Amino acid sequence: MFDKVLIANRGEIAIRVIRACRELGLRSVAVYSDADRSALHVQMADEAIRLGPPPARESYLRGDIIIQAALEHKAGAIHPGYGFLAENGDFAEMVEQAGLVWVGPPASAIRAMGSKTDARRMMAASGVPVVPGGQSGLIDLDAALKSAENIGYPVLIKAAKGGGGKGMRIVNSAAEFPSAFDGARREALSAFGDDEVYLEKFILGPRHIEIQILADKYGNCVHLFERECSIQRRHQKVVEESPSPALNDRPDIRLAMGAAAAAAAQACGYVNAGTVEFLFDPAIENFYFLEMNTRLQVEHPVTELVTGIDIVQTQLRIAQGETLPFKQRDLVQRGHSIECRIYAEDPANNFLPDAGRIRTLIRPDGPWVRVDSGVTAGDEVGIYYDPLVAKLITWGADRPAAIDRMQRALSEYRITGFKTTIPFSLWMMQQPRFRRSDFDTRFIEQEFKPEALHSAGDDGRVIAAALAAALTAKNGLTLKATPPAGRDACRDEGVNPWKAAGRRQAMR
User: Which of 62, 295, 405, 414 is catalytic?
Assistant: First the structure.
C-alpha cells in the first residue's frame, strides 16, 4: 500500500519510527526545522526535508508544508509520532484528503476523544465508569462555581481540549475557585487555543493506570495490559512501569480495566494504537475513565518489553491494511519493565528547563537495558521544544530486578553540558516507599526535597577528573580519589584510569 513513510516529528520518537520502518523494508523521510538541521533523526532517515525556522508554529506545526513535502517526495504515509500534530483531527483529515495514509486513528475518533467533555459523555453512555463531575465545558465563572458546589470540593479544573497537566488546577474551596478558574482558562488557551474547561471530583491519593490498546480496520481490538504512571511531577509522568504493582494482587481489576479500555476504543470506532487512561482508587478499589490518548505514548517501550509486541511496527502494519496477527488470548505479561524519562531540567532548582551543548555522553548498556534517545555528543539541546532528552528503560524477571537494573543503568549514565534529571531518577529508584509500591500521584510532592541530590558539582569537575585520570594512566601512576557526589559524578570508589581515559576519548 505504501513503501515510504514521512515522520512528522523529531528527536527520539522520529528515530524510533525510522528504525521500525527500516526493519519492515520501508523508506523513511525526516522533517526538520533550522534548529534540527544536523539532528540525529535527520542523519538516520533515508531522506530529509527542511520545514522552516525553529519555532514549532513555523515548522513542525505546519501541516500544509508537511503534506506538501510528503507528496513531493512520494511518501505514501505520514506517521505523526506524539506531540505536535499527532492528536490533531483536522491534520489527520487533511492527510487522507491528500491521498496519503495516516498512521493513526480516524479523524472522527481523534475529535471524539480530543474533547474531554465529549469523551466523558461517550464513555458514560458505553458503560465505562467516569470520574464524578460535569459533562459540559465551562467558560462562565458563575456556572462553574455552581457546578463545583454540586460536585463537592475538592474539585479538579481541567482543560476541555488538551492534556499533559496543562490548564489543570486543584481547588479546595469556593474562595480559591475564581483565581484558579481564571488561571486554568488562560493556560488552556495558551496551550491548546481554547479556554474551555470542565470540572471533576478530585480523588485523593489515586493511582494513575493506563491501558495500551491496538485495533485494526476489521473490528479486531486487543489490549496490551496496563502501565503504572503514578510517579508524576506537576501532573506530568516521569517514571512508568508495567505491570502495575497495584494490580498484581487484583487480576480481576486488571481484566476489568482492559475490557473497559477495549470498549472505549470500540465506542469511538478506533483504529491503530491508543491508550486509555484511568484513575484507580485503591481505598475502594474502583477505577474511572480519565481520557484517551489517540496516539503512540512516550512510555510505550515498557509495554513492548513485557509483551514482546513491537507497537510501532504494528501501527505501520495496521495502516497497511493488515489484520492484527494475535488475539487477546495470545497476549501475556512477562517480567517487569520500568522507564525513566531523562529531561534537560535542573531537579535541584524546581525542575527548571536547562539548555546547552552536550559535551559528554556515555549511555548505559548491558542485558535488558534500552535507551531511546534523539541526541548524540556535540548536539545542542535548545529552548524551542520539549526538554525530553532520552528515555531509559530496563527489564527484569520481577519488579525488584527491574528497579535494581535501572539503578545500575542510571549510575552509568553521563550527560554533561547542562543539568539533567538523571540524579532525580536515581534518587527515585532508591526510595523505600517506591520500592515497596507504597505511592500514589502525590509521591514526588510528598517526598522529594532538592537537597536530597547533594548539590552535584558542575560539569567542569567531571571533565577535570577525567583529564587527571588520563594523565595519571599515561604516567603509569595509580590514582585514588573521592569523587563529587550526585549528578555526572564518577561514582567509583577510586577512579579507574582506563575507564576515565576512555571517557576522555569520548569527549574529544
Answer: 295
